Amino acid sequence: MPAYDVLRVFCAPNGGYGNELGVVRDGSALPGRAERQALAGKLGFSETVFVDDPERGIVDIYTPTLRLPFAGHPCVGAAWLLDVPELRTPAGVVGARQDGEFCWIEARAEWAPPRTLRRYATAAEVDDLAVPPPGEWIYAWAWEDEPAGRVRARAFPGRDDGIEEDEATGAAALLLTDRLGRALNITQGAGSQILTAPQPGGWVEIGGRVYLER
C-alpha cells in the first residue's frame, strides 16, 4: 500500500470534528484508475485524493465507489497540504489561498455533483433526522440565524458504501451558497464549520480549517 496522509477538513474552532480525507502524495505509485478506486474503497474515507503533480496541483479524487471530477473538502484539504495557488481537477482549475487559520478554494456550482437541498423549518429538526435509506443525495439544512447567515446542515450521501452521513461537504455548501446568493457560516454534522462567500462571475469561495491527523 502506498503512503498516505490523513487530514481533517472543515474543523471546528477548537480543532475538533472535520471530515477525514486520505491524500496519496505520490499518485504515480498507483497510476491506474482501477487501482486507485480499489485503494479508495479499502481506506473507506468519504473521499481519497491522489496527487499527480504536487507543484502544478494536479489531483484525482475518488469516493469508495466512484471517481469525482470535483469535490469540496478534498480540494480544500489538498490545497492546504500542497500549499499551491491552484488545483487542477477534471472539472476545471480551482483557485486556492491561505488566510490565517483558514484555507479557501474557489469553484463553480456546476462542477458539483447533483444534490437534493432540503430545507427544514428549524435546526432542531435537522438535528433529529434519522439517516435515510440509500437513494438520493440529501443535504438537509435550516437557518440557525438567517440575518447572520448561520446554517445548520447534515449530509446524507445515499450511497450503499458504508458512509451513511458525511461530516462536512464542501460541494453541497457550494450549491447552497449559489442558490441563496449570500455568504454562509455552516455548522455541519457533529460540529464541523464551513465558510462560504459568493464571488463575481458565478464563482463561490469555500473555506475551512485543516489539520494533519497522521
From TrEMBL:
Molecular function per GO: catalytic activity
Pfam families, per the entry: PhzC-PhzF
The protein's name in its UniProt record: Phenazine biosynthesis protein PhzC/PhzF
Organism: Streptomyces longwoodensis
